Amino acid sequence: MAIDTNREITDNEILKYKPLIEVIANKFKNSGEQLEDLKQLGYIGLINAMNLYNQQREVKFETYASWFISGEIRHYI
């Protein structure tokens, strides 16, 4: 299956995972970076995960996205 990196992602899809981003960003709040900056990086990671997720694999999206969100934040700090 080809990955569709051009699909439209709606605000509702992104807001659905806001709690996940907040939980992950809060784990890095002692890094010296602003919490709001960490959350913004989390949204970048989420969008990347949404673009690359393959539903045919047996991995829950939340698990898959968590790696992208954490990775984006870690890369920044």
Short account of what is shown:
The protein is an all-alpha fold and 77 residues long. It has helices spanning 11-16, 18-26, 35-52, 61-76. The radius of gyration is 13 Å and the shape is globular.
Structure description:
With 77 residues, the protein is mostly helical. It has a single domain (11-76), classed as RNA polymerase sigma factor, region 2, helix turn helix motif (Rna Polymerase Sigma Factor, Chain: A). It is built from four helices and no strands. The chain has helices spanning 11-16, 18-26, 35-52, 61-76. Helix 2 (18-26) crosses helix 3. The longest helix has 18 residues, at 35-52.
Which key features would you list for this structure?
single chain; 77 residues; mainly alpha; Rna Polymerase Sigma Factor, Chain: A; 4 helices; 0% strand; globular
Structural class: mainly alpha
The helix content, as a percent range, equals 55-70%
Main beta sheet, described? none
> What does the average pLDDT come to?
91
Task: Provide the fold topology.
Blueprint: H1 11-16, H2 18-26, H3 35-52, H4 61-76
